[in-house]
Design goal:
single chain; 106 residues; mainly alpha; 3-stranded parallel β-sheet; 3 strands; 10% strand; elongated
Length: 106
């Protein structure tokens, strides 16, 4: 099993983060937001935007190498936990908000 998001315009896609948390290898386009979640050949594959052939090739690549696909999924999960856990996101958001209004959370 894997996650495929062939987006051409995206914010930070929660669906990719959720799939990563489930240890699924990720395939998505090299679009803003998507590339903040996926590092090519580390936790998934990035393909050019609107390139159906590249998308098919990426899916086939992971299908033909399930051991590597599983490894990508495990790395995706570790990254999701380390970078996108809600406590981390909340802390970062509060830090940015605090800088904007001039107060410190210390």
């Amino acid at each position: 099993m894997l996650m495929v998001l062939p987006s051409y315009r995206e914010g930070l896609p929660k669906s990719l983060i959720e799939a990563a948390a489930c240890a699924l290898p990720l395939i998505t386009t090299n679009a803003p937001g998507c590339r903040e979640v996926v590092t090519h050949e580390v936790n998934g594959l990035l393909v050019p935007v609107k390139d159906a052939t590249a998308l098919v090739n990426a899916i086939e690549r992971l299908h033909l190498d399930p051991v590597w696909a599983r490894q990508l999924g495990l790395v995706a999960r570790a990254r999701a936990i380390a970078e996108f856990d809600e406590r981390i996101v909340i802390e970062k958001t509060l830090g940015v908000d605090g800088e904007l209004v001039g107060w410190s959370r210390k």
